[in-house]
Amino acid sequence: xxxxxxxxxxxxxxxxxxxxxxxxxxxxxxxxxxxxxxxxxxxxxxxxxxxxxxxxxxxxxxxxxxxxxxxxxxxxxxxxxxxxxxxxxxxxxxxxxxxxxxxxxxxxxxxxxxxxxxxxxxxxxxxxxxxxxxxxxxxxxxxxxxxxxxxxxxxxxxxxxxxxxxxxxxxxxxxxxxxxxxxxxxxxxxxxxxxxxxxxxxxxxxxxxxxxxxxxxxxxxxxxxxxxxxxxxxxxxxxxxxxxxxxxxxxxxxxxxxxxxxxxxxxxxxxxxxxxxxxxxxxxxxxxxxxxxxxxxxxxxxxxxxxxxxxxxxxxxxxxxxxxxxxxxxxxxxxxxxxxxxxxxxxxxxxxxxxxxxxxxxxxxxxxxxxxxxxxxxxxxxxxxxxxxxxxxxxxxxxxxxxxxxxxxxxxxxxxxxxxxxxxxxxxxxxxxxxxxxxxxxxxxxxxx
Amino acid sequence: xxxxxxxxxxxxxxxxxxxxxxxxxxxxxxxxxxxxxxxxxxxxxxxxxxxxxxxxxxxxxxxxxxxxxxxxxxxxxxxxxxxxxxxxxxxxxxxxxxxxxxxxxxxxxxxxxxxxxxxxxxxxxxxxxxxxxxxxxxxxxxxxxxxxxxxxxxxxxxxxxxxxxxxxxxxxxxxxxxxxxxxxxxxxxxxxxxxxxxxxxxxxxxxxxxxxxxxxxxxxxxxxxxxxxxxxxxxxxxxxxxxxxxxxxxxxxxxxxxxxxxxxxxxxxxxxxxxxxxxxxxxxxxxxxxxxxxxxxxxxxxxxxxxxxxxxxxxxxxxxxxxxxxxxxxxxxxxxxxxxxxxx
Amino acid sequence: xxxxxxxxxxxxxxxxxxxxxxxxxxxxxxxxxxxxxxxxxxxxxxxxxxxxxxxxxxxxxxxxxxxxxxxxxxxxxxxxxxxxxxxxxxxxxxxxxxxxxxxxxxxxxxxxxxxxxxxxxxxxxxxxxxxxxxxxxxxxxxxxxxxxxxxxxxxxxxxxxxxxxxxxxxxxxxxxxxxxxxxxxxxxxxxxxxxxxxxxxxxxxxxxxxxxxxxxxxxxxxxxxxxxxxxxxxxxxxxxxxxxxxxxxxxxxxxxxxxxxxxxxxxxxxxxxxxxxxxxxxxxxxxxxxxxxxxxxxxxxxxxxxxxx
Lengths: 449, 344, 309
Known about the structure:
The complex is a heterotrimer. By secondary structure, chain B is an all-alpha fold.
């Protein structure tokens, strides 16, 4: 991976899972263009818990939403690169996803990258049961596997029944339709794989021919859908829909197992419930269940505990740590709570008003914060033995429609210099693994990167 | 509070309101002189002034109001509503003759109205701020502003006056002969259904044919409200957090709109269906008058013109009852459909 | 970038004034509302200038002059710019004075409804309890019967004519205002600043009129602006059915009812009398459309979710 000419940022190494490079995301609103991300570059590695810290409105959520390309209207990713390194088994290079089609992103979301949100109550659809909502994850991404299991079970059932049992016939009919549907999914998966493989091959090349080809492939990807032959009709006819009952049963079994593994008591019962009947902590577990159903490689947690009480908070954090050990590879944890960062994260990035200020391993950051903003943040956290006034960072978060020129922090920076007003600071690796974007640490002092 | 106690409470409330409605109707009646009020006790149209005086005395129409009210209510429960000049028959008979005509049209128009409103409103919301959206919004406002009678007349003028198609009136004379002839069995009293059940297709075709224009009229005018409500409800739904969750799960656009947004957006529409129903009934009066369908609305209009007291009072009472019952049903449906209400 | 003097000026203005300015500006930015406003203003001017535009020929200006007794309507001509209706009533005269009549009806009914509705809504919402229950049950009853049907029955009971129609519309119209105001008050009543006012000893009346009402007014005003159109439509419908003013009066619904028979035209020319069917209804539609557009725009502006400061 060649480092970008503009800003030398942590380049992807062997263990990289996802990275963004100079991401600019803007929101085109009535009042003007909100420049939410001002060239954000982050790198998430495998097996780590990566924290994204900053005040409200600094762009943490926008960054991860850009990563998954679910930025809300009227937002748009205007420039930059986002590269994902999934399916490490046979791929050493990444796939650039800013220009990929929605169809491609849909296959990734929920399956390779999942997200959990801040307010679990609002994140759950009030008119769908828990079973419906968690089951949806399976239906979107693991249909083939579900049908396989169902067919197996149907076979076993049939084998175990007497020859003249009418239920045998029923099972046979159901199997026929399910097989048709599976065929559809299989062919779809194969087609998609061909397209994705070629896209992956073309990834390196930047010439015009490659671009056109990628474009064509993207179009083709958009147009493919799983078709299921006879099942397509059957799916829509109310009476014939009963062929799906065994499939629903399979999915329900999986959902119940999943809930149980997340420590939810009495999962069969909970599955039938609707979100408003559950407590906040339980709701958040359901959200986590939805995210984990397909064993994603990366879990993005957008302030998952900010709206819960402290005791529940602790439970959820424990749960996430547990999952990190057992089920997920990496976690991208967003929070404004430095205490949580210290407890949970391995590496952390501090953001301010759409800029990345500093990136470092957690211990490093706490021990020796380089950026004046990080210093201010850490200083403002009250400490046990503190006896004097609480320190704070003077001023307020800037308006992102007319953000400050140069370094966006300069109006509030206690160590402001003239250059800060004019030029945006480059990101340098001041110490191995410790990156900072501040004119106090100009490029010439960087160690070999 | 369980669903059961909710229903019980609503039923009690309904009874209370119906009593109130009857009081209001009675109060209106009392505004008229006894000479006209006696109509509700009359059963044929051969009445001389002497007989009228006798009846006024007999039914104590000069008695204090509460007693008259009691008498009137008892009569209602006995099924005696008096004689209707406009129907040339006792009120109840007139009702049996006129109601199916209106019912038919309502059964055809109501689903059309709801469907149009929901689909166009949903379309407008999903494609917000595009030409399609603006078009549907303007359509809604214009539809809302058009006078009922004008649109009906225009439609008639264009289609019937000019093109000769979609004539008014419920059935043509030929078909009428079939229906009221010997071989036609009135199973449901709804002409179209009866036509199907009797296997007399000309009847069915004729009846449907003549319902097209009135339905169009009613749809244009009444779907506006639903369209607008659906649009704003859908917009609100689309902006909710759970949409983001669904997207993050990898849902495709169609699933997002259909399964997640629309289901939530439809809830308020259920409630407004009740109001639409009431509006429909009001519209019936004019629509039936213009399209010459002799239904309840037409009867009401004639009764008003000719001061047919018994018919008017009956109609008001009847429509009020229907409306209250429909609203109760709508509320129950809502309570059943929304899990937040059902299970709390 | 606004100059600082502008900003300072804005800041020192009374908040209600500033809000009015803000609202007006937003109102004028929306093309639909501008169209609505123009329509209403045009009709208003026509109504005001009726005596000038079409001088009355009879002592009662609302009687339409007719030049002859021929049944068939005649097409637009120099003498009758919009043609005549049956029995040679002049269309233009009818429409112009009809505008006046429409404004009269609309304004009188809505203002009366507002007054009654606000008073009862305040009583119900603010004081609650038994008073609230009673008023709510009464509105329930009114809501139980479809509006037009009820209006027809009442007109029969009271007697026909324009005055009766106005009275009926007033009697039947206030419940929706009461309901709307009451629900707004229920929301406002629990806000902290009301409790603060009570704690500082303000009397009920004072609280009602200076604190509660101004904050709860918006929905009612929106309802009023939307209802003017509706009221006119209902009044026209009643006239159309023959329950309003007598034949030959300058009332829009009346005019349409006169024209009902002419939809078929002559055997040779199917559209012979199109003007008689089309024009009066079109005029009504424009008028109501104008009010509805305005009311819609006002509602969009006052929608708390869409307000931006």
